[in-house]
Amino acid sequence: MDFSIVSIFPNTTLEIVSGFILLFFGFVLGYLFQAKKSQVKSLIREAKMRAGQIKALEDVNKDMEATMRRLSAKEFELSNANQRLRELEDAKSKFVSVSTHQLRTPLAAIKWTFHMFLNNQLGEISAEQKEFLQKGFDSTERMIKIVNELLAIDLSSASPDDVYQFGAVELESLIKNILAEFYSPAQSKDINFVFDSPPSDLPPVRADLAKLKIVLENLIDNAVKYSARGGQIMIGIDDRDVNSSQPKVKISIKDKGIGLSSEAKKKIFQKFYRAPEAVSLEPDGSGLGLSIAKDIIGKHGGTIWFESEAGSGAVFHFTLPLFQK
Prior knowledge:
It catalyses: ATP + protein L-histidine = ADP + protein N-phospho-L-histidine. By secondary structure, this protein is of the alpha+beta class. Strand 6 and strand 7 form a beta hairpin.
């Protein structure tokens, strides 16, 4: 009896253990199946997402190809338009150049005819006649100045190598000659010129003589026009940088005129701009002088700037590199 009970118990225990083992493996397999199923679903979702991204990229690529085709067409149109603009610019430049050169010769002849009358080279004239002839002479000079400014504006769009003839320029002698040209208008307003040149010999600057003359004439002309009667205009040359790593000189032209307002300071180098106070004092003017001066100095490798307060005059500075062989 005892033996039969003992023999049954181990079998029952074995069945229970086997059941637990089967249950455990079943649970593990179920878990692994669910995990694999979830992973498969995740892969399917990712594949669908990738397919959507690929489709989106294909659409973007098609849009880009269409855009590139449109851009190519626009580029072709712009290229043709640019070529047309260059042709029109060339035609304009030729017209301005021919017109200004055609005008300069007769205007110069008229100017010197007036000059001969004013200096009694063609006979004595009365004070009244001289007054009217002086007005004609001054008007002719303004016309010549405007023609020169138009020519300078036309040249400003060209490369310096095309229209500039750089060489060694003796700055002191150039300034003295220009001051002599402005002696009469300065004397008519009792304005005194003071030229402060360096005590030692100044080396020549690298410049286009004709273009540099335009700059100095514009700046000195403005100083005379906008200075009060009995004032003083100072022209100075600073040679402190002649032996620096970038040798240059600084030229300054100082007046005691109307000065520049805050608004004028922002626009003074813009083409055709004239400050209201300048217009009220001197109605005639093109508003091109300072714009031209800035362009010319820039193409010389220099800089131009100013210091001014309204009612207290102005001083314009510009630099020029020295001439080096």
